[in-house]
Amino acid sequence: MTRIVHIAAPMPRHGAHSGYARLSEAMSARVIAPPRLANRLLDAMPARLPRLFLDPPNSGWYWNNSFLAAELAALATKAVKSCIIHALYGENSFRWLGFGPQKRPGALVATLHQPQSVFFTAMPQPKLLERADALIALAPCQMDFLEKLCPKTRIFFVPHGVDTHFFRPLENVASKEPFTALVVGSWLRDEALLNSTIQKCSGMDTPIRFLILAEDSFKKGLEQNAHVKVLGRVSDSGLLDLYRSANCLLLPLKDAVASNALLEGMACGLPIAATDVGGVSAYTNADCALLAPAGNARRLADILEFLAQNPQACSEMGRQARLQALSHSWSAIAQKMRSVYSAIIQ
Predict the structure, then answer these.
(1) Whether the predicted pLDDT of 80 surpasses 80
(2) CB atoms within 10 A of CB 224
(3) 3-161+329-345 — its CATH code?
């Protein structure tokens, strides 16, 4: 049996139950830890030296020596043993893997998380992906530009997953008043659209409260609205409580591929009010989500008003959202990924 090795370095902002790194646990994969000696050596170098051949100056993308150390350790493992090396965050961890020898046992896999609008900033040397035996797209919206980087036969769509055991709705919930729209996350969120949507909702007959959990730069100025409550960093249990306390999840987006917040909100039984961009429609359906055209604050506000004024419809959409999320449980996603691994090593 071919050994499965993941470079899984989780994102610092993700809690223990969130993020794509949860795939490793679901697959019982070995996770490469950055060797301490390699980390020390890299840290001793001038800060920019390891990046000279990988990123343009001031690319600003999330990257550190730990990723490089983990890649080197993975290559060392692969040099002595046939295995599948899977960079779970390909934009961060498929740099030096792409410089490895082409004739090798096993396979190299990379999951890519970003939409075309930011991908080439995230990965300024995309030709490295030509060395991958499989690229994992998290939404169909990535296919067109990925097919320009790699043969179509090596690109596979495997959705993002969610911990449906942890993120789940409360049973026998009492009516939640006032109607609360929860906003979670900052990446590729449309701040101007959110502000405009809040303003349009302020004059409605049905009061709507907004809870916003995001980075400080995204929340700036929102505290001045009486209908808005901004929140600081919360624990895993605090995040779960927020999902469970809300009536719907509001996602004003500029672009998207997969979204932890989207899947977690659905898993907690929240109907979705979101911008119809990127991969959102690939993870939702008309039974659990109402989508607005990009930048259309009037439509988003109307969606929130409909949900607030129709509690039965809102409840049924929440039930359907939970059912949709169950199809994205990590066990289901792990099975799909095993099928990809089997296909590329045959």
Answers:
(1) no
(2) 7
(3) 3.40.50.2000
Q: Residue 328: which residues within 8 A CB-CB, separation 6 or more?
A: 159, 160, 161, 162, 164, 263, 283
Domain boundaries, the chain: 3-161+329-345, 179-326
Which CATH class for the 179-326 domain?
Answer: alpha beta
Name which of 202, 158, 205, 188 is nearest 342 in CA terms: 158
> Which candidate, 174, 265, 160, 157, places its Cα nearest to that of 211?
265
Model pTM score: 0.91
Q: In the block, which residue shows the tokens 């989207």?
A: 262
The pLDDT of 166-184, averaged and rounded, is 87
Q: 178-207 burial string, b = 16+ CB within 10 Å, else e?
A: ebbbbbbbbbbbbbebbbbbbebbeeeeee
